[in-house]
Q: What sequence folds into this?
């Protein structure tokens, strides 16, 4: 009993320690409370902000790219949905995830084999996909790739999409995402001016999103990147798609969504509570464009150019400078390059296009420069007339050649005595050599510049080439040696250093036709909203007025009329009596010399001349100017001129057909009765060989150049 | 007469000396813990949603066991001290033979469908063993290094075994309990300096040879908290965000977004305090941390009033157990300390942890009830020699 009443052991050793321990314990917990105060009160708002950002995700809402239409509302470029399939690895194949304490894996079933069946994967693809999923699921922590969707298939057929949607409940972790892909219904036709779209490249993106972009304020971002480019965005790469990108693109919208750590969206009142206003900004769809192009005419151009490998055609309204057709050959299908088909196919298409020696990616109407050949002669003639150096009625004698010093300059034929009108109509080089001798290079260059040759037209679509109209000073810079009169002679007939683009030539001929007004070529007529309201209408823009006296211009126009309608005119053989055309043929030497590296076939092709025909119609009251260039086509009168004729004829036929249709619509009531009566109307314009047509055997009126007959040469031979 | 009165009582429990303060404090924390677990596991984690029920079961079981422990006079534990300690060590060794492998370390022994973590209980056995040693070795003069050899060995054996599992957090708790109990005794200052120097040498050695890569990673993350937020810093960062998001008054029960939207990892085992802080804010945290502080201070008070050395060391040991668990866990969750897997007493889900704490509380109650000189008990009579 007593042992229990006395202390069994002495606790005095511990006595002094309790107070210290209590103090330490108190301080430790005080520090914890202090830390809580620091986190929750002092930095509370900051952390609340982070917490808010954690659960709120700003989802961008896609915008739709504007539609491009032609002058009559036909759709040239629009967007179609492409269905892509994404898989969330951890949900498609839960068995690939590491086993976890507390979480039973059995309740989730693998849907992988069903998914693979639905997507029609072959065994090889199936294996690769399974390996990809297993790699992603090495860990299944929050935010591991296990929960990040991976892209499996692009541009699925609608059947498979429907199947996936129908069995969605049995296919967990499979998402179908619709993504707009650019679509060009006319395929190759008009591909050059229309251009194509592609994914934004790293270089461009770096320009819009320089390093440190993420840390900028929204205002600064807006300034650097007004269109809000992001990685993977689709942008216009060439043509109208590129040049009018800022109109077509539209503006993305956004919406705030509540997400959890695994990126799953949460809905319901408890999630709504967290959303702060504004919670949504609607996307602004891109603007639609209405072009000046008439796609029906463009197709006619394409048909007319079909027999030839390469070339360019420009059709322009001489009264406004609006381009009705703009065609460059060979062309490409922008659908192959515009995504949708998948990266692999795009790469292949590019490889093919860029290895083609005929350069399909080059827009030859404005980026290609060529010697204009004889189509340049009217401007030389104008130079002589303007400065009254040569009376137009003076005749020069053409013996088929001319000697200057030791060099002989040749003509295509022996024309005998010709005046200016005949010289242009028959394309006599000798006359122009003599003319050039007295006029000089600089005067010719001045007139050519008056008509906009050798200068960029400012169409602003594809990278435009300027071409070149040489002057004495240009030669002085270029050649160290003495200036030779031969340079002037070559310039007068559009050879030597003289180069133009087909577009320039078309605008210059349009100016010849309309009395000297040089228009800026116009491709986009109006900008419209997606519901058709016109936002911006572009009136014709006059670039300059050529300072030419009307009588001189009339004289040249008369000569151009003679080219087609005079019996000795170079284009007389392809004349079509149903249409009135004035124009000028051209057969431009390419200056190709086979150095022995090219194989004979290629050398033969490259040594052939470029065939030109520049014309306007109707000759008395011109509406359109047409320039046809057939690269290495041979002779202008036999190759290029018939194409131009066909195009002009087609233009008039279509115009008439439209007028008939319009008339039919205006007299709406007797619709049924009127329609059959009107039907023959377009038939009038249909090809009907004129009695005096020199090629009666060819019902289409296109005389094919016969390869056995050497084409008549009308140019000099240096 | 006195004996008769005592014998009349149920198990000799001195009813008027029942420690209501200790009991109520414990119950309050436990209730908070269960409520918090309900919030922590309620959302979108179907597999976890019954955890709070299990926690209640464990609390009840722990309460019953704690009651039993409290009723038996602690002098029996003194008598059987080394035996209990030996049993604990045997279990630790068994872990290596029977252990279940979870996330690269084996800490568990499976009994039926339950996992049982011996290293949790070893803490108590260590406290009892140390208490017995100090009880049997009363000193009046300061202790030197020689006097620390036996307690160090007693601590070292389980600590090394636990380090081998590996379980850095529990091993650390063992060392801290040992340190705290050493501080209770009077040690020569030269010895303290010696120990400090050797620890300073030991830390780099442990870094190179003992610690696993993931453990090193955690320390590195602690030293550079803003770096690598998506990787190893994820836990610490999101715990801080959740606490900060609580603000003054909190988001409300089950309204904390960081927990509800799965941003908090391990929210029921290691980070329940972050859930609590987000739901209840600074006011809730203040109350909870105060409760822990009060519990620890009360344990010190019990030690101070204990009637013998064994009881005092026992109380200080259990107090240290609660203190270090709470401080390490709170420090880790609030970003004051590196992430070590130490549970928050009565808040973290887990059977072994809850039962251990309840047994510890039972021991405290035991010492507290028998603090008076004149309160012999029926079981006490057996000890009379």
A:
């Amino acid at each position: 009993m007593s042992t229990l009443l006395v202390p069994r052991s002495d606790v005095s050793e511990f006595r002094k320690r309790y107070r210290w321990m209590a103090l330490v314990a108190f301080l430790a917990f005080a520090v914890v409370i202090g830390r809580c105060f620091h986190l929750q009160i002092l930095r509370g708002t900051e952390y609340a902000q982070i917490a808010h950002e954690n659960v709120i995700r700003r989802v961008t809402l896609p915008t739709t790219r504007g539609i491009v239409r032609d002058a009559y509302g036909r759709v040239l470029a629009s967007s179609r949905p492409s269905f892509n399939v994404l898989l969330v690895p951890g949900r498609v194949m839960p068995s690939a995830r590491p086993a976890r304490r507390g979480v039973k894996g059995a309740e989730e079933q693998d849907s992988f084999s069903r998914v693979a069946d639905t997507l029609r994967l072959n065994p090889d693809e199936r294996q690769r996909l399974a390996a990809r999923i297993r790699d992603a699921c090495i860990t299944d922590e929050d935010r591991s790739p296990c929960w990040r969707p991976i892209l499996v298939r692009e541009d699925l057929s609608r059947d498979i999409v429907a199947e996936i949607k129908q069995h969605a409940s049995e296919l967990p972790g499979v998402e179908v995402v619709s993504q707009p892909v650019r679509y060009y219904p006319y395929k190759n036709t008009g591909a050059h001016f229309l251009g194509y779209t592609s994914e934004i490249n790293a270089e461009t993106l770096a320009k819009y999103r320089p390093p440190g972009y993420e840390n900028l304020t929204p205002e600064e971002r807006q300034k650097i990147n007004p269109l809000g480019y992001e990685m993977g965005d689709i942008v216009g790469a060439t043509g109208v798609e590129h040049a009018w990108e800022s109109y077509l693109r539209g503006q993305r919208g956004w919406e705030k969504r509540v997400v959890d750590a695994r990126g799953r969206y949460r809905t319901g009142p408890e999630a709504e509570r967290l959303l702060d206003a504004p919670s949504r900004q609607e996307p602004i769809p891109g603007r639609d464009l209405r072009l000046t192009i008439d796609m029906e005419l463009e197709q006619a151009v394409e048909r007319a150019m079909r027999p030839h490998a390469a070339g360019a055609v420009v059709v322009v309204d001489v009264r406004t400078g609006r381009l009705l057709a703009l065609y460059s050959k060979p062309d490409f299908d922008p659908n192959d390059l515009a995504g949708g088909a998948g990266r692999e196919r795009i790469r292949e298409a590019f490889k093919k296009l860029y290895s083609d020696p005929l350069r399909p990616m080059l827009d030859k109407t404005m980026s290609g420069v060529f010697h204009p050949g004889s189509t340049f002669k009217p401007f030389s003639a104008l130079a002589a007339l303007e400065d009254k150096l040569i009376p137009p009625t003076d005749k020069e004698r053409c013996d088929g050649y001319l000697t200057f010093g030791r060099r002989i300059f040749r003509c295509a034929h022996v024309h005998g005595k010709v005046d200016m009108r005949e010289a242009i109509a028959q394309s006599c080089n000798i006359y122009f050599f003599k003319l050039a001798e007295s006029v000089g290079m600089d005067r010719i260059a001045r007139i050519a510049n008056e008509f906009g040759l050798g200068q960029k037209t400012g169409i602003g679509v594809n990278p435009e080439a300027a071409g070149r109209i040489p002057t004495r000073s240009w030669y002085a810079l270029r050649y160290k040696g003495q200036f030779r009169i031969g340079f002037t002679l070559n310039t007068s007939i559009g050879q030597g250093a003289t180069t133009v683009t087909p577009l320039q030539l078309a605008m210059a001929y349009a100016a010849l036709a309309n009395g000297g007004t040089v228009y800026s070529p116009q491709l986009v007529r109006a900008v419209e909203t997606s519901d058709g309201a016109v936002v911006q209408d572009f009136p014709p823009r006059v670039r300059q007025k050529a300072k030419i006296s009307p009588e001189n211009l009339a004289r040249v126009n008369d000569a151009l009329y003679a080219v087609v309608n005079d019996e000795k005119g170079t284009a007389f053989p392809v004349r079509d009596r149903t249409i009135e055309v004035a124009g000028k043929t051209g057969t431009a030497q390419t200056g190709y010399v086979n150095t022995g590296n090219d194989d004979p076939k290629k050398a033969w092709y490259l040594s052939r001349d470029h065939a030109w025909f520049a014309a306007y119609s109707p000759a008395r009251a011109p509406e359109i100017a047409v320039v046809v260039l057939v690269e290495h086509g041979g002779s202008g009168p036999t190759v290029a001129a018939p194409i131009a004729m066909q195009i002009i004829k087609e233009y008039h036929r279509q115009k008439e057909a439209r007028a008939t249709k319009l008339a039919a619509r205006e007299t709406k009531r007797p619709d049924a009765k009127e329609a059959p009566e009107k039907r023959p109307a377009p038939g009038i314009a249909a090809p009907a060989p004129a009695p005096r047509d020199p090629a009666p055997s060819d019902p289409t009126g296109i005389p094919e150049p016969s390869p056995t007959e050497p084409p008549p040469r009308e140019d000099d031979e240096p | 007469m006195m004996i008769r009165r005592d014998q009349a009582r149920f198990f000799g429990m001195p009813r008027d000396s029942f420690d209501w303060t200790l009991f109520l404090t414990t119950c309050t924390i436990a209730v908070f813990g269960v409520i918090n677990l309900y919030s922590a596991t309620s959302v979108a984690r179907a597999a976890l949603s019954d955890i709070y029920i299990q926690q209640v079961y464990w609390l009840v079981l722990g309460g019953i066991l704690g009651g039993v422990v409290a009723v038996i006079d602690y002098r029996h534990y003194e008598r059987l001290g080394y035996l209990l300690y030996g049993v604990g060590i045997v279990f630790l060794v068994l872990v290596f033979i029977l252990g279940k492998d979870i996330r690269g370390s084996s800490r568990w022994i499976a009994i039926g469908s339950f996992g049982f973590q011996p290293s949790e209980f070893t803490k108590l056995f260590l406290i009892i063993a140390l208490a017995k040693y100090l009880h049997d070795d009363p000193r009046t003069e300061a202790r030197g290094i020689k006097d620390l050899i036996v307690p160090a060995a007693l601590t070292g054996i389980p600590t090394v075994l636990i380090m081998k599992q590996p379980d850095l957090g529990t091993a650390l708790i063992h060392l801290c309990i040992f340190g705290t109990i050493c501080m209770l005794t009077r040690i020569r200052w030269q010895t303290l300096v010696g120990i400090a120097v050797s620890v300073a040498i030991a830390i780099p050695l442990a870094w190179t040879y003992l610690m696993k890569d993931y453990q090193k990673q955690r320390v590195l993350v602690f030293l550079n908290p803003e770096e690598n937020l998506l990787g190893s810093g994820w836990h610490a960062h999101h715990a801080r965000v959740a606490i900060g998001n609580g603000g003054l008054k909190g988001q409300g029960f089950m309204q904390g977004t960081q927990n509800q939207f799965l941003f908090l990892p391990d929210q029921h085992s290691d980070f329940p305090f972050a859930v609590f802080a987000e739901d209840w804010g600074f006011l809730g945290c203040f109350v909870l941390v105060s409760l822990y502080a009060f519990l620890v201070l009360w344990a010190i008070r019990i030690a101070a009033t204990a009637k013998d050395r064994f009881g005092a060391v026992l109380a200080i040991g259990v107090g240290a157990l609660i203190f270090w668990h709470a401080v390490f866990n709170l420090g880790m969750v609030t970003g004051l300390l590196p992430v070590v897997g130490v549970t928050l007493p009565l808040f973290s889900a887990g059977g072994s942890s809850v039962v251990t704490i309840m047994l510890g509380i039972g021991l405290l109650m035991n010492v507290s009830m028998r603090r008076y000189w004149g309160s012999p008990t029926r079981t006490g009579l057996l000890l009379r020699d």
